[in-house]
Design brief:
Blueprint: H1 7-18, H2 21-44, H3 48-67, H4 74-96, H5 99-129
């Protein structure tokens, strides 16, 4: 079935097309978390190829988050360092097929996602209260 013929695929595409920058970052965190969880599951199933693919996808998402930072802000430098650390941990996890290391990255991603979600919520409140 073609992607645009599938109502779920259409919804996902529309969600991406209409999301603001904050929502896009949240979607990226969700995607990286999903890849990490899949990688853990594949490692537990001894599916080396798919665990490798999932870890690489998570790394690509984190690399995209790194490249989208506005480095004029101190927080961006801190995030860049954290993302870089996560990528290096995922490389180690991939080499060693280590679920615990992936879970360490998952925890960091969850905390960042929660903080970002709160920032988006506060921003929305400010935008709508000034309308």
């Amino acid at each position: 079935m073609a992607a645009m013929g599938n109502p779920y695929q259409q919804y996902k595409q529309n969600s991406v097309n209409t999301a603001g920058p904050g929502e896009l970052v949240l979607m990226m965190y969700d995607g990286a978390l999903k890849c990490c969880r899949q990688a853990c599951s594949f490692i537990e199933q001894k599916d080396i190829q798919n665990s490798n693919n999932s870890i690489i996808k998570a790394q690509k998402i984190i690399t995209e988050l790194m490249s989208s930072l506005d480095m004029n802000y101190q927080v961006s430098n801190n995030l860049y360092s954290l993302y870089s650390y996560m990528n290096s941990r995922l490389i180690q996890a991939n080499i060693n097929k280590d679920v615990q290391t992936i879970k360490e990255v998952e925890t960091m991603l969850e905390e960042l996602k929660d903080a970002w979600k709160e920032a988006v919520r506060i921003n929305r409140q400010q935008v709508y209260s000034h309308s």
